[in-house]
Recover the amino acids of this structure.
């Protein structure tokens, strides 16, 4: 229960900040662009070319989720992962946080939980955006509902997989954000490694980069056959989390 | 009974000289303890050690008669603090800032209104903190520190940067918190004059070592021994001879007679001697020693 109070306290810090709005607008960006495009070229879900018996919603979702996960989301996670600790650094508030009656473990995971909740929010909004993309052009252009039922389990599973490929980025950026007071360092490192990984995507060992799995989600054909990007993502996520936690609790000076 | 006790507390930032050196602090329950020292003397480092913001290297810290390290969370639940500059989320209102901590401390929501009233910020409770003046920020910091009804308040230079009115306001507030709510207060400062009207006990730290610790009265007694007077007369050399004949040690600061370490009765005796010998006194000035002079005296 105490942990929930700490998470609530962390969530309150986001009030009046741009984090939530940026997350929501960023998640709706592609669905809105596609909706406008569909409406302008007179395309809707029922009119999309069917590939066998596959539910039309599935390619529609992937059309949005792939570029979102492979490009927009890493940028978003680099920003959010770096920014979440800035609220303490910028306000000179770590000392206040560390003199509250909370264990360091509780403080660490409360902030981390907020990051993960933002990530879940992003995918929830993205899915809402995809649903709107499916419904709005259909209703506006034909006055009918989509023929295929919404495959909720597919959307949830695929969203989970997409999120998983981005978690190494989120955990690594949180680590950098906790270690460096200056905001430009985690941002600079994040963007440099992400762009470097994109440029080196066709090289042999690029999958060692924690930023590669999200890009592989976009460029599925380039995934080396001997690796499973989901297992690798999970391992990186756990590894970075453990390392980050150890570095944080053993830090000699806390604020 | 002491609220805080440290034993041989020592801290090095690097391998050089210790910033805090075998410190034995004793802060009695219910006191307002003035922790004094010049800038860089080790005050903030000591307070950070007391709050667990720095990891203790040598010695021991006991707060509320229990080792701090083993009882960190339980102990912090009874401490309010303000270390160096005020801490809060500038993009939020005073109420929101208190709400964040109210969640963590799990104190009643009504407490937010109460503490805002205590520090006199109830009228600006919904204003963003980045629009506050420095004095308002300091008061909000104190509201944050007392939100959970702590037994101990640790304030590191809470009047830094305030104008004289602001200093008086904060001083009154701290006195009220101590007397009305029975909270033990540790307040650090580099100016004795700033806290001498407030504190009951004093600890003086210099280069990481405690030079003096005791009640304010004990410090005043020591201070009396370091007070000097300067005298200007119509015939200073004759006056000096008269005083030396009366076994009073005098020296000259330029043309002015200076007598060191005098208390009030001695000052009266000096004036009487000169008047009895028909010396005209133009000026007698008492040099009340500042903290720096007391340091010098204490380190001699």
């Amino acid at each position: 229960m105490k942990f929930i109070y700490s998470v609530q306290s962390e969530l309150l810090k986001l009030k009046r900040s741009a984090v939530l709005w940026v997350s929501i607008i960023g998640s709706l960006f592609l669905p809105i662009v596609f909706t406008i495009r569909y409406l302008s070229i007179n395309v809707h879900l029922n009119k999309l070319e069917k590939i066998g018996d596959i539910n039309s919603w599935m390619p529609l979702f992937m059309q949005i989720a792939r570029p979102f996960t492979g490009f927009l989301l890493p940028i978003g996670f680099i920003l959010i992962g770096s920014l979440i600790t800035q609220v303490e650094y910028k306000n000179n508030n770590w000392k206040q946080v560390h003199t509250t009656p909370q264990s360091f473990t509780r403080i660490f995971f409360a902030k981390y939980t907020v990051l993960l909740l933002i990530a879940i929010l992003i995918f929830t909004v993205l899915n809402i955006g995809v649903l709107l993309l499916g419904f709005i052009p259909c209703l506006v252009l034909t006055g009918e509902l989509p023929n295929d039922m919404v495959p909720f389990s597919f959307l949830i599973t695929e969203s989970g997989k997409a999120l998983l490929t981005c978690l190494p980025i989120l955990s690594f950026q949180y680590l950098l954000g906790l270690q460096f007071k200056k905001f430009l360092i985690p941002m600079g490192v994040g963007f440099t490694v992400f762009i470097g990984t994109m440029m080196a995507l066709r090289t042999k060992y690029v999958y060692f980069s924690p930023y590669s799995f999200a890009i592989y989600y976009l460029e599925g054909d380039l995934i080396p056959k001997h690796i499973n990007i989901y297992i690798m993502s999970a391992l990186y996520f756990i590894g970075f989390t453990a390392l980050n936690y150890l570095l944080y609790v053993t830090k000699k000076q806390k604020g | 009974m002491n609220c805080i006790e440290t034993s041989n507390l020592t801290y090095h930032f690097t391998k050089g000289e210790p910033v805090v050196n075998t410190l034995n602090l004793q802060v009695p329950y219910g006191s307002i303890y003035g922790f004094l020292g010049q800038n860089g003397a080790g005050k903030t480092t000591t307070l950070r050690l007391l709050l667990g913001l720095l990891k203790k290297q040598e010695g021991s810290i006991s707060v509320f008669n229990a080792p701090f390290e083993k009882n960190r969370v339980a102990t912090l639940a009874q401490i309010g603090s303000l270390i160096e500059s005020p801490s809060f989320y500038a993009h939020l209102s005073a109420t929101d800032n208190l709400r964040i901590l109210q969640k963590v401390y799990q104190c009643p929501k009504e407490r937010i209104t109460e503490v805002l009233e205590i520090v006199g910020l109830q009228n600006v409770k919904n204003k963003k903190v980045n629009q506050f003046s420095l004095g308002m920020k300091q008061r909000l910091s104190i509201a944050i520190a007392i939100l959970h009804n702590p037994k101990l308040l640790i304030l590191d230079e809470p009047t830094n940067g305030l104008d004289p009115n602001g200093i008086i306001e904060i001083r009154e507030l701290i006195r009220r918190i101590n007397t009305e709510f029975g909270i033990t207060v540790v307040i650090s400062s580099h100016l004795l004059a700033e806290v001498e009207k407030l504190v009951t006990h004093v600890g003086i730290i210099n280069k990481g070592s405690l030079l003096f610790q005791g009640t304010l009265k004990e410090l005043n007694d020591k201070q009396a021994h370091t007070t000097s007077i300067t005298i200007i007369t119509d015939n200073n050399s004759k006056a000096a001879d008269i005083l030396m004949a009366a076994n009073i040690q005098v020296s000259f600061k330029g043309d002015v007679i200076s007598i060191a370490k005098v208390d009030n009765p001695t000052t009266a005796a000096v004036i009487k001697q000169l008047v009895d010998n028909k010396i005209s006194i133009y000026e007698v000035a008492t040099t009340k020693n500042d903290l720096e002079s007391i340091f010098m005296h204490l380190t001699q």
Summary: Chain A has a mean pLDDT of 93. DSSP finds ten helices and no strands in chain A.
